[in-house]
Design goal:
Length: 135
Amino acid sequence: MNDLRRVLTARLLAAAAALLTVVAGLGVRAVMSGETAKYAGDALYTVLVYALVVLVAPRVRPVRAALVAAGVSWAVELFQATGLPDAWGRRSGLVHLVLGSTFNPPDLFWYLVGAAVAALLHRVLRAGRTAAPGR
C-alpha cells in the first residue's frame, strides 16, 4: 500500500507541477518580453515535458527524466528546422504552442537548463519524502 501511495503522490505532484509550469509560462509571456521571456519559456517548456514524464512514469529517477525531457525538447527544436511545425502552426494555435515555429540554436541550451532545474527540484522533493518521519 505504501508503494501505491508513493506512486499516486508522485503523479499528483507531477500533475500539479505541470499545471504550475503552464501558468508560469503564460505568466512569463504576459509580464516579460524579448529574449528573457523567450528563453524562460524554453526552459519552462522542458520543465513541462519533465513533469509529464514523471506523470507517466512516477518511479523515474531524476537524471533519466531530465534526459528524456531534454531529448524530447531537442527533437522538437531540431524538427523545427524542417519548416513543418511553422506551416502546421499557422493552421493551429495548439500545434504552434506544442511544436513552436523556427529553429533557434540557443534554445537547445535553455532546454538543458530547464531539465537540470527540474531534476534538481525532483531530487530535493524525493529526498524530502524519504526523509520524512513515519515513512
